[in-house]
Structure formats: C-alpha cells, structure tokens
C-alpha cells in the first residue's frame, strides 16, 4: 500500500517535471523566435548594402552587433559598408574585432587589407593580403589582394616583390592600364629599364593618352 506521504512526493516530482518541461519549451519558443529576427536583420543589412544605402546598412549591423557581439556576418556587412563610405579607420577597427571572433574568415581579411591599404599602413596591408591569399588563393578578390601587395611593396621600396605582385595581378586582369604604369614604375626604380618600357607601352596600348606612361617612356629614353 502506498503511503499518503509517498503519493505526495510523487505529485511534487511530477509538478517539478512539468515545470522543467514548461521551462524548456518556453526557452525553445524564444530561441526559435530569435532566429528569424537575426536572419532578417542580416538580410535587411545586406539588401541595404546592395542598394547602395551604406549608412543604413551600417546602422542595422551596429544594432545587431549590440544584440549579439559574436555575429560575424554583421561585422562583414559593417566592414563593407564602412569601406564604401570611405571610413577606412572604422572598417579597420571593426575588422580587427571581427578577426578575434573568426580568425580565418577571408571576408574579414579582405576588409582589413583594403582598409589598411587606403590608410597607407603598408605593414598591415601586406600581412592581411598575404593571409587572404594563403586561405583563399582562388578567391574572387585575389587579384585585388595582389594589387594591394604590389602597392605596399612599392611604397616601402621592395621593388622586386612589388614587380611579382603587380605582374600576378595583371596576369589575371590585364586590362588595368594604371597597374601597368605602376609595374613600369617599380621596374624603372629597380633599373630594369627594358622591362619597364614594356610595361609602359602596354599601358599606352590600353590608354594612348596616359600621361604617366608617356613620362615613363621619356625618362627611360634618357637612360640609353
């Protein structure tokens, strides 16, 4: 025969179980409701960015980051928006924060390489562009990374490395006249005058009135 005390204990245990399940169900409801909201915020921010509403996209992502500081996609859209707005310091700052969340996200590395290139920080440009290429060598923005590398190496006087980087960029995107001029310049600085002349002439094939290429050829003619 079951005692009244035993029945009471079973009823208490049953109530506890009901309370526990109710708590779990309540948590799941809130969790599932939160997921679409976050996804919607991501989509809204990306849509605003694609429409050229960069300030609005940044506003949405900043609010999302405040709600969820580890939401890497929000940092990415925020970084893109800051680059588009010309806020390179902000792009670099948020990009470095994002990197602490996702160390090998090539999207973040692109943001950092571009931001620091525009800020003239050659050391960090080289670091992040090389990291991007190590992780995503065939990525859509690889050509741009080689350009950033070439420009950074050119500015610090590493002309051989700059030659390699610009040559690689032009291998994949040969129609950039300004890049041919930069390649001619680093070859000229390295006193590789014949190779420099070739690069300047290639720039003029693309842009016959390019004054920098014309001036480069005149300088080289004085070396002979």
How would you describe this protein?
The chain has 224 residues and is mostly helical. The protein has a domain of 66 residues: Serine Threonine Protein Phosphatase 5, Tetratricopeptide repeat. Helix content is 82%, strand content 0%. The chain is elongated.
Précis, in short:
With 224 residues, this protein is mainly α.
Helices and strands in order, then pairings?
Layout: H1 4-50, H2 54-67, H3 72-85, H4 88-101, H5 106-119, H6 122-135, H7 142-155, H8 159-172, H9 177-189, H10 193-206, H11 211-221
Helix pairs in contact: 1-2, 1-3, 2-3, 3-4, 3-5, 4-5, 5-6, 5-7, 6-7, 7-8, 7-9, 8-9, 9-10, 9-11, 10-11
Percent helix, as a range, is over 70%
Q: Compute the gyration radius: what is it?
A: 28 Å
Order of helices and strands, N to C?
HHHHHHHHHHH
- Count of DSSP-assigned helices: 11
Please describe the biggest sheet, giving its number of strands, its sense, and whether it closes into a barrel.
Answer: none
Gap from first CA to last CA: 115 Å
Structural class: mainly alpha
Q: Which segments are poorly predicted (pLDDT under 50) over 5 or more consecutive residues? A: 6-14, 21-37
Strand content: under 5%
Number of strands: 0
Question: Which tags fit this structure?
Answer:
single chain, mainly alpha, Serine Threonine Protein Phosphatase 5, Tetratricopeptide repeat, 11 helices, about 0% strand
